[in-house]
Amino acid sequence: AESQSAMNEEIVQNQLRLEAWAGRPCMDFCYPSGRYAVQHPLWLHKAGLRSATTCDAGLNDGGTDRMLLKRYLDRETWSDLEFEAAISGFSEIAARLLTAIGLKRTSSRT
Hints:
This protein is mainly alpha-helical. Helices cover 42% and strands 5% of the residues. It has 4 helices and 2 strands. It is elongated and about 45 Å long.
């Protein structure tokens, strides 16, 4: 959305549809196609949403902005082991360790 008021209107309309279908309040948001602008997290917070999920790969911790939650998307090119390593946190820990000791990662599969 190009303005906060336009985004609020889209959120309200989508919440009404989803809540009618789900039968409960919908307070979480997924950025369409994972795309967001720098102002969107603040707008969503002001709209009263609880969280928003991006398509940015990674793990979340207590310091992660709830309006910029990361996730891992299952990819057809990943083996089961690669996917399990990603969602368990092993891949991120390994990447941080390799960075810390000055080695570069040989794969960009995260």
